[in-house]
Amino acid sequence: MSFRLAPHAASAGFQLEAHDVVSSTNALALDRAREGHPGNLWVVSKKQDGGRGRRGRPWATLEGNLAATLLKVLHNDLSHAATLGFVAGLSLSEALDAVAPNARISIGLDGGGGGNVRRFELKWPNDVLASGSKMAGILLESTMLPGGSLAIAVGIGVNVAAYPTDVPYPATSLAALGARADAETLFLALSDAWTDIERVWDGGRGLSAIRDRWLQRAAGLGSEVAVQLEGNIVRGIFETIDQDCRFVIRDAQGETIKIAAGDVHFGAVASAGSS
């Protein structure tokens, strides 16, 4: 099976550029924007060897996994551009539900918490978890275009056939969970789910509904967390995300802290007295 768009996505005007191997789907998507592509372009591959994660960390997509980037070009209100990452998380989790209904996933592990019973959970700001282990990561990169438009590459990397073992956190893959879906099948479902969820987002006008749906899948909601902020550790109870999708915790003194960017840790790491 080759990569293809869901009929719903194709009829909505999305386009597809598929590769066997790329250095970075995000970089290719931004190149297309600089070349004049108007956006709504999916760039996909089953192997990526030069990708990046958050804070410039290397992110390689192993053979058989999914590297997918959606190019969006925004012309007007850019204030909600960063919240496309939450659209991506919701779209991917719904696609995973669709293609892996029988995956062996435990509920309520350290990465879950809070009584959440959704099978694939969303870890703020940009990870998808299964049984507390990382299944996927999301990275938004952007560049300004002539005329003031903003090109955004919404990068989504998913462990389908394999997962990395040389990382400092638990990871898993669809294959490890007993699911038989391949990268092409997952992308088909992802392109379909994105089309519907972006319509809800509606250029940021529907962000409140996106926030509500994201919280239904939130990993660690109501549990103790530790957030690393440029060398400092902030601890507290994960209460919610606010209207701007910032991470909201309540510390031991009862103070509310709103965090725009940081690395979140659950379980034993969050409970430890030192970093």
Helices and strands in order:
Blueprint: H1 7-11, E1 15-19, H2 25-34, E2 41-45, E3 48-52, E4 58-61, E5 66-74, H3 84-99, E6 120-123, E7 127-130, E8 133-144, E9 150-158, H4 183-201, H5 207-215, E10 224-229, E11 232-241, E12 247-250, E13 256-259, E14 263-265, H6 267-271
Parallel strand pairs: 1-2
Antiparallel strand pairs: 2-5, 3-4, 5-9, 6-7, 7-8, 8-9, 10-11, 10-14, 11-12, 12-13
Helix pairs in contact: 3-4, 3-5
What labels would you give this structure?
globular; single chain; alpha+beta; SH3 type barrels; 5-stranded antiparallel β-sheet; 275 residues; 7-stranded mixed β-sheet; BirA Bifunctional Protein, domain 2
Notes on the protein architecture:
It catalyses: biotin + L-lysyl-[protein] + ATP = N(6)-biotinyl-L-lysyl-[protein] + AMP + diphosphate + H(+). The protein has two domains: 209 residues, 2-Layer Sandwich (BirA Bifunctional Protein, domain 2); 48 residues, SH3 type barrels, CATH 2.30.30.100. α3 crosses α4 and α3 crosses α5. β7 and β8 form a beta hairpin. 45% of the residues are buried. The chain contains six helices and 14 strands. It is an alpha+beta fold.
